[in-house]
Structure formats: C-alpha cells, structure tokens
Design brief:
- This protein is α/β, with parallel strands linked by helices.
- The protein has two domains: 4-127, Rossmann fold, CATH 3.40.50; 142-207, Winged helix-like DNA-binding domain superfamily/Winged helix DNA-binding domain (Arc Repressor Mutant, subunit A, Orthogonal Bundle).
- The chain is 57% helix and 12% strand.
- The chain has nine helices and five strands, in the order βαβαβαβαβααααα.
- It has a five-stranded parallel beta sheet, sandwiched between helices.
- Helix 6 packs across helix 8 (171-185).
- The two termini are 33 Å apart.
Length: 208
C-alpha cells in the first residue's frame, strides 16, 4: 500500500470547478493534494522530487499543453492525463513519453483513484531509486583515482596479486587500497561491492 502521508498529488487543470472536484475527491481518499491552475506553477516548483509525487494533468490548457509539460518534466514524476479533447495520437504520444494513464473526462472516481494509486507506487519506487543512486555516487566520489582503478579490477574477480601486476604496484599496497575501497563503499563483502558497482554502472547507462 502506498504511504499516503509521505506522498503528494499535484492536480493541474485550468478549469476551477474540475480542479476543485478532483482535489476534493483525492483529499477525501487520504491524499496530500496540491491544486494548481497552470502548468507554469508546477514547473516552477523546486521541490518536485523531494518526496514521492505524481501529477493529475489536463491535456489542453492555455499557454502550454499537457504533452509539453510532460516533455519538460522529463519523467521526473508519473503523470495521469485527463482530457475532454483526447484523440488516439495524443494518447499514443503521452504513453510513449512515460504517462501512466490517459483518462477521458468526466472520469469515474474509482478509475481515477486506481490510476493515482498506481502512479504513486511508481513514484515511491523511483524515489527510492534516486536516493540509492545519490548514496552510491556519494560513496564513489570519496575514492581516489587509484582506489577506483583497484575497485574496477577487484569486482571482476581478480586477486590482489593480479591487480598488483595489472597496475604495476606492490601487492601490499593493493591490499591497503582494497581495504579503503571496502570502507569507503561501506561494503562488507566483495559480493556487496560488486552489487554497488553494478548499480552505479546501470544508473550511468540510464543517463545515456
């Protein structure tokens, strides 16, 4: 079950009555709701990723469409689109951009609540992933260049004497570097170190 108290739902719609009704429904269901009347108000928020959150977003709004908002958010938050003007091409584009749902107005209460629940579950997973990534990158940042070289070889399964040969260093020196790598990476075993390095490389690949 999603932790409602630790997550937010941003409702973005230029129609005052629709926005109020959506916010009222979501608050009655226990969600922490922030109601906004324009996309700019959402995009100017500096704390969007500070806690798990999703967006219930109108597709057609003055100044900026929902699809343009989606592009600017760059998958930072899961989006549930609501529209009274939707078509197949817009739906396909929204889904390709990572939208979780594309629902027509008026939307059934149960349908909306189910979509928001799914969106927040995804947001919780992504929030944990961001925190884990930041923690791993912080640990790696404290390694010296030589310690990184030693770590890269150690995680391939090479022994201290093999790493020493590869790097042209004394085995005793490699043992010291290896111990420092384990300490700085907060890894108790080589298996844990391999897992951390694998995750770090996966995160780097995601950015490419």
């Amino acid at each position: 079950m999603t932790n409602l108290s630790a997550s937010r739902v941003f409702v973005v719609d230029d129609d005052d009555s629709v926005r109020a009704a959506l916010a009222r429904l979501l608050r009655a269901s226990g969600y922490n709701v922030e109601s906004l009347d324009c996309p700019q108000a959402l995009l100017e928020r500096a704390d969007l990723a500070s806690q798990p959150a999703c967006v219930v977003l109108d597709l057609q709004m003055p100044g900026m469409t929902g699809l343009e908002v989606q592009q600017k958010l760059a998958r930072l938050l899961p989006i549930v689109f609501l529209t009274g003007h939707g078509d197949v091409s817009s739906s396909v584009e929204a889904m390709k951009g990572g939208a979780l749902d594309f629902l027509p107005k008026p939307v059934a209460e149960a349908q909306l609540l189910a979509a928001v629940e799914r969106a927040l579950k995804r947001a919780c997973i992504e929030s944990e992933r961001r925190h884990e990534r930041a923690e791993i990158e912080e640990r790696i940042s404290h390694l010296t260049r030589r310690e990184r070289e030693v770590m890269d070889l150690v995680v391939t399964g090479r022994l201290n004497k093999q790493v020493a040969s590869d790097l042209g260093a004394a085995e005793k020196t490699i043992k010291i570097h290896r111990a420092r790598v384990m300490e700085k990476m907060k890894a108790k075993t080589i298996v844990e170190l391999v897992q951390l390095v694998t995750k770090a490389r996966a995160y780097a690949t995601d950015e490419e």
